[in-house]
Automatic annotation (TrEMBL):
It comes from the Bacteria. Signal peptide: none annotated. It comes from Arcicella aquatica. This is CoA-binding protein. It holds the Pfam family CoA_binding_2. Residues 3-112 form the CoA-binding domain.
Length: 118
């Protein structure tokens, strides 16, 4: 099972970069989707909405106004849960996800990992 980091960035100052590194350090498999190609710890940031299998968790690092073109793709991956990190909360997307049985959390991935609640 893997975690898809949406809004992944190869910029070490970005929270998506830090979350990816922390996910890997805690033994989680990751897939990365961003607006610009790059790499984090040897993993390639994809810019295309490619098919993925075994996505357990999606962690969002994309502002709500930039999420609508991702709804169908992300829900089509059939994740168990979506984490909306601070600043990414989106009532419309959260409701769509809940209607499909997806667990929705408004939380910080870094905090969840740090406190072993991930």
């Amino acid at each position: 099972m893997k975690t898809l980091v949406v809004g992944a960035s190869s910029n070490p100052g970005r929270y998506s970069f830090k979350a990816t590194q922390m996910l890997l350090a805690n033994g989680h498999e990751v897939a990365l989707l961003g607006k610009e190609k790059g790499q984090i710890a040897g993993y390639t940031i994809k810019t295309d909405q490619l098919p993925l299998e075994d996505v357990d968790t999606i962690t969002m690092y994309v502002a709500p106004q930039n999420q609508s073109n991702l709804y169908d793709y992300l829900l089509g991956l059939k994740p168990r849960r979506i984490i909306f990190n601070p600043g990414t909360e989106n009532d419309a997307f959260e409701e769509k996800a809940k209607k499909q049985g997806v667990i929705v959390e408004e939380a910080c991935t870094l905090v969840l990992l740090s406190t072993r609640q991930f």
